[in-house]
Write a structure and sequence with these properties.
The protein is α+β, with helices and mostly antiparallel strands. It has three domains: 2-95, Arc Repressor Mutant, subunit A (Orthogonal Bundle), CATH 1.10.10.10; 99-202, 2-Layer Sandwich (Nucleotidyltransferase, domain 5); 216-273, Nucleotidyltransferase, domain 5 (2-Layer Sandwich). It is built from eight helices and twelve strands. It has helices at residues 2-9, 21-41, 46-53, 57-69, 137-146, 183-188, 200-211, 270-273, and strands spanning 73-78, 90-94, 100-107, 110-117, 123-128, 154-159, 162-163, 170-172, 195-199, 219-224, 228-234, 237-238. A five-stranded mixed sheet has the order 5-4-3-6-9. Strand 4 (110-117) and strand 5 (123-128) form a beta hairpin. Mean pLDDT is 85; it is low at 12-18.
Length: 278
């Protein structure tokens, strides 16, 4: 989600430098590194940020100035005076009011929602329990929209099953047998600024390296709960199929003519390892 926000909220590339794709890619990565560190560790001085991000103080100062002009960062209270010379340093922090972000996890048991400000200093959570098995794409979109009293700047939906690589459509989901289709567009058509859809396990795998120190690609994340999901993360990010998220570990055949799975087939891994099967 941090990448989505920075793409939508980050400073624009100056026209005379728009062709320098390599340099802009590095700047974008460094901006995201700083924002991710502040979101994970909280407000800190520029010197502390340089240490945590592995960048020079001069680079941090430049990035921070860009992000302050864009309204993404704010300067807060001064740090306590240390043993070194000079005045106490001011802390950098994320601007809570810069954006509001939301996520929704769609499962067989219902839809879990979460909403937060840009700094994650305020988080709200709630749940609804619609009859997902009978909903089509339009009905699901209307239900999601009705669950919010105000529209977030970014909404990310995590679903069990295969989703299109463009982040717009559900290809197939056992929790939503009638709602495969362009769900993101259907929600945006009802006034939401930006919506993306992804596989639930892929979303978890994408955030793990930022949450677990020392975890670096390649690795595989396995989600075992209402179903069995997996996501493989390589050097270039989450590995996907040619057109969709593709890898449905829970529906790999385990025993021919074995237990009946909720997908309708028999012998799937899920039929033996999911929570309802154990």
């Amino acid at each position: 989600m941090g990448n989505l926000l920075m793409e939508r909220l980050g400073p624009d590339t100056p026209p005379d430098r728009a062709g320098a794709e390599g340099s802009e890619s590095i700047r974008r990565a460094n901006r995201l590194r700083l924002v991710s560190a502040l979101r994970r560790l909280g407000p800190m001085s520029r010197i502390e940020a340089a240490r945590h991000c592995g960048l020079s103080p001069a680079t941090i100062t430049l990035i921070a100035a860009e992000l302050q002009r864009a309204g993404i960062l704010v300067e807060g209270e001064r740090t306590e005076r240390g043993t070194g010379p000079g005045r106490p340093r001011r802390r950098l922090g994320l601007a809570p009011g810069r954006a509001e972000v939301a996520a929704a996890a769609v499962t067989h048991r219902g839809i879990g929602f979460a909403r937060a400000d840009f700094a994650l200093s305020r988080i709200e959570r709630w749940q609804t329990r619609p009859e997902l098995g009978t909903m089509d794409t339009r009905e699901l979109a209307e239900h999601v929209v009705a669950a919010f009293d105000r529209k977030p700047d970014v909404l990310v939906l995590g679903v069990q099953g295969a989703v299109a690589n463009d982040g717009r459509s559900i290809v197939w989901s056992p929790a939503l047998p009638g709602a495969s289709g362009a769900l993101a567009g259907a929600i945006e058509a009802r006034g939401f600024p930006y919506v993306t859809v992804d596989n639930d396990c892929a979303l978890i795998a994408g955030i793990l390296p930022r949450e677990i120190e020392g975890l670096n690609p390649p690795f595989c994340a396995v989600l075992a709960s209402y179903g069995i999901g997996a996501a493989v993360v390589g050097a270039e990010g989450i590995m996907r199929g040619a057109r969709s998220s593709a890898f449905e570990l829970g529906h790999v055949p385990y025993r021919p003519d074995g237990r009946k799975c909720r997908c309708g087939r028999r012998g799937c891994v899920e039929a033996y390892a999911a929570d309802y099967a154990v």
